[in-house]
């Protein structure tokens, strides 16, 4: 138990590692969807003001939607765990012999035999909480997540907005000069690529995979989304305008 608590307090940079996955996937989604909006607007030759409005609207609306979905998903997972946990308590109280036999079969399948097997069964069934925890893990293959729904939702929204705002940064400085204005989309591409590379490397750490592969996958996904959005915007601009 103490080891689990220590593990849950481990940090990567300044994040609790328990929530780094939410930050990573919220950031990837935020950057890709916002960059797709920017690319689509550029393809349709829309003005700078329109790009900023569409981008910010996407950040707030999609970020909120994603965080709400994350909240209910995490809450549903915890509620489902508790429901099955209560069922196991009821079965221990009302179907004790059957539950004892299930524990015996579980550890018999692990290689325990004879007196040792019976001793393990006796130890586990002597404590209802240990018994239920064992049934949840070994029989139902369910482990309770320590993640709080409101925290997962908050981290998701924060990362979506922070990383998702990167494709818009160059457009906020459009008044810096005509040279800047002419290259806004290029700067947006560069900034987005950097942001996706950073988040992609974090994704690789979370998934324990090669960092270069993680960065490449993230950049490829973002690039494909941008290309599709750009040409959709270009086609629609020619058809409708």
Question: What does this entry look like structurally?
Answer:
With about 240 residues, the protein is mainly alpha-helical. A two-stranded antiparallel sheet has the order 1-2. Helix 2 packs antiparallel against helix 10 and helix 3 crosses helix 6. The longest helix is centred in the first third of the chain and has 47 residues. The protein is elongated, with a radius of gyration of 25 Å.
What is the ordering of alpha helices and beta strands? HEEHHHHHHHHHH
Number of helices: 11
Largest sheet: 2 strands, antiparallel
Instruction: Report the average pLDDT across residues.
Output: 83
- Arrangement of strands in the largest sheet: 1-2
User: Which oligomeric form is depicted?
Assistant: single chain
Rg to the nearest angstrom? 25 Å
Termini, distance in Å?
64 Å
Number of strands: 2
Notable characteristics:
single chain, 241 residues, mainly alpha, two-stranded antiparallel ribbon
